[in-house]
């Protein structure tokens, strides 16, 4: 590993850590850059409540003085308490096609986690299960949807060469917009609502804070047994709500209620990556904001992502999921 050196990032070097992906993806037309201002907030212990229950260390790898890779070591104490594990995570991994650099980063992170009592390493995790998780192994021919990972194909080799094996398949499904909704589906949805005394309503932006609390109540109950799930803290819900408020379309988020109590919700968002991919430098100014506004105007974006859908245990297998998808079709087509 001659010429390779890994160093711990201090606050003054965080900008270099954030900007390194522009080196890796410079020639990749499918890469969707994060906004730099968003990354600064996301990686700030003062602003991101994830840091309240996690220890995170950032590392940069240099070859002959030039940055060739980066990685974060993450200990999510809330995850380990909830799952009764001693698992550390690696995340925010970006690297040139340099096997020595990747090995140096993995070895450094492994040593950091082992010294702090961790017995398992899992990743990529950027940073909690409520953020972007996973290594892309298929689908390199298209840009990622919002809040989904993307990486060069050679990352698979770099990760596996350092002893990692698959922990879980994370799958994404795609569906074209139907031209018409079958009458039998419409009849079935009406029957489900009548039989179970369900009501479906859209997000009320005027009561956004209260709506976030309704989401929290369902989320922590409905996702409890999901792989990798960790209950979100109040601070994390408020933080996520703040992020989502700027992109959520109230016509694309639905609540299911039973006798006035929320028992499920479905959140779809316009795929803002269709706009962010135009902002190649990750900066809002001088032209980035105008590009985002132009490319997110009504009728411009052509896809949406169902980010999350869940139903409380006692109301599962009642057909609420079908009702949610029906409304996604109706509003998505409109």
Describe the structure.
- The protein is 34% helix and 21% strand.
- It has helices at 14-19, 21-24, 36-42, 77-83, 99-115, 155-160, 183-196, 208-222, 234-245, 273-276, 288-295, 320-333; strands at residues 4-8, 54-63, 66-76, 87-95, 120-122, 125-126, 132-133, 198-202, 253-258, 261-270, 304-311.
- The chain starts with a strand and ends with a helix.
- The mean pLDDT is 92.
Main beta sheet: 5 strands, mixed
- Beta-strand content bin: 15-25%
Encode the helix/strand succession as letters: EHHHEEHEHEEEHHEHHEEHHEH
Strand order of the largest sheet: 1-2-3-4-5
Q: What's the count of strands?
A: 11
The amount of helix comes to 25-40%
So what's the overall shape? globular
**Low-confidence spans:** none
Radius of gyration: 21 Å
> Strand pairing plus helix content: what structural class?
alpha+beta
Instruction: Kindly report how far apart the N and C termini lie.
Output: 57 Å
- The helix count comes to 12
Kindly report the average pLDDT value.
92
Short account of what is shown:
The protein has 334 residues and is of the alpha+beta class. The chain is built from twelve helices and eleven strands. The strands form three sheets. A five-stranded mixed beta sheet has the order 1-2-3-4-5. A four-stranded antiparallel beta sheet has the order 8-9-10-11, sandwiched between helices.
């Amino acid at each position: 590993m001659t010429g390779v050196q890994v160093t711990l990032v201090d606050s003054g070097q965080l900008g270099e850590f954030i900007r390194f992906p522009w080196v890796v993806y410079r020639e990749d037309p499918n890469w969707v850059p994060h906004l730099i201002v968003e990354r600064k907030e996301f990686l700030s212990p003062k602003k991101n409540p994830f840091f309240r229950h996690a220890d995170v260390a950032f590392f940069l790898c240099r070859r002959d003085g030039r940055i060739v890779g980066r990685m974060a070591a993450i200990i999510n104490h809330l995850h380990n308490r909830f799952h009764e594990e001693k698992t550390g995570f690696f995340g925010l991994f970006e690297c040139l096609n340099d096997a020595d650099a990747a090995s140096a980063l993995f070895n450094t992170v492994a040593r950091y986690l082992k010294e702090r009592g961790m017995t398992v390493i899992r990743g990529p995790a950027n940073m909690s299960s409520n953020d972007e998780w996973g290594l892309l192994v298929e689908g390199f021919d298209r840009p990622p949807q919002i809040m989904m990972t993307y990486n060069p194909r050679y990352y698979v080799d770099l990760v596996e060469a350092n002893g990692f094996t698959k922990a879980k398949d994370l799958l994404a499904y795609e569906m074209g917009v139907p031209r018409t909704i079958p009458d039998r589906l419409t009849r079935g949805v009406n029957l489900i609502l009548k039989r179970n005394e369900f009501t479906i309503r859209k997000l009320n932006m005027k009561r956004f804070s209260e709506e976030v609390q309704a989401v929290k109540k369902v989320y922590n109950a409905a996702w409890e047994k999901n792989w990798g799930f960790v209950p979100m803290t109040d601070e994390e819900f408020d933080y996520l709500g703040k992020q989502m408020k700027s992109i959520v379309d109230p016509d694309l988020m639905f609540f299911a209620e039973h006798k006035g109590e929320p028992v499920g919700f479905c959140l779809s968002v316009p795929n803002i990556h269709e706009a962010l991919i135009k902002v190649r430098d990750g900066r809002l100014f001088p032209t980035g904001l105008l590009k985002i506004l132009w490319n997110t105007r009504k009728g411009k974006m052509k896809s949406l992502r169902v980010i999350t859908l869940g139903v409380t245990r006692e109301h599962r297998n009642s057909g609420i999921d079908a009702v949610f998808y029906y409304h996604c079709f109706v509003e998505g087509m409109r």
